[in-house]
Amino acid sequence: MSTLYLVRHGQASFGADDYDQLSPLGAQQSVQLGRYFAAKNLTFETVLTGTLRRHTQTLAGISEGLGHELHAVCWPGLNEYDSQAIITAIHPEPLDRSPSAENYRHHFGLLRKGLLQWMLGNTQPQGMPSWPQFSDQVMQVLRHVRQSPHQNVLIVSSGGPIACAIGQVLATPPEATVELNMRLRNSAVSELSFTPKHYALQTYNTLGHLDAPEFADWVTHA
């Protein structure tokens, strides 16, 4: 049985003009994950990423930590949904983007509600695929990986596609898929065992590479 390692990107630049960029901490999280993989003597015969910068930057950090470059196939079906379009579909008024805990909670509260309405088919965010189309893009990747003859496959992506993949394997309802998405931490690893016929969830949202007191303040969600 083979293993698919699903890695969410390191901390991005929430609140900045360009979110699609790892923060300095996000880069550190990624390098530390690579070191963790190296300590476990993990090798990846197949590597896939989305095409977003935070995906490729996370992979570069993992490569640095491993001590050798990982060559990936970029797959657009692993790209994240447009969170602003999701929120605008249920809350067209402009949001206060000044940094504060209250605005942070408000943003993610709206995102949670917007995701559910999109998954239920009650909204269609502008410029985005429908939820069934988004899910099918993720499933195309899973079908491709399932036919891989390799022992270890690495995917670097975002919370939406990873939650979608796990939700498909577990057959979760939309409400549970949203919660899977919202709980995923930066640089977290989830593992799916697979054969040519099926997947099985082994681990979800783990941070083994940050499981030490000196990394306590490296745990982030956005």
TrEMBL record:
Pfam families: His_Phos_1. This is Phosphoglycerate mutase. Keywords: Hydrolase. It comes from the Bacteria. The keyword Cytoplasm does not apply.
